[in-house]
# Entry
Amino acid sequence: MANSLCEVLVTEAALEPPKDDFDPGAGAIANFWGMVRALEDGSEIDGLDYEAHRAMAEHQLRRVGEEAMKNFQLKKIVIHHRVGFVRAGEASLFLEVRAGHRAAVFEASKWVVDELKKRVPIWKRPRFKVAARRLHESHLSGEASAAKL
# Structure
């Protein structure tokens, strides 16, 4: 694994895949895009506000990436996560995994996403559309009233 590479980034900029670089040892490459859905808890949203402890988030992303490199014998891993406001339909996460064989990239990709959700200090808060916000808030206050009974 002399040519291994782990790249992490926490950014407010729109995510783009890195420029292609040829790696003759990578027989498999998987790219995963985590997209912001238009619905959150059944209500329409404009997008998600992401907050992070940036230094700690990058540190934890790097730890997850390095563990994945070792555990799955990866050639390269790229983990980019957005912070700030991310509109519905835009990417909040880009993950690229390269390995000698396809099984490793699929297994590693799933493991990395699961681990970053558990370990990386990045929090999201939905920004509801105006009409959906009223409906969502009335639903929540109805639940609170019912819970008091």
Summary: The longest helix spans residues 54-72. DSSP finds three helices and eight strands in the chain.
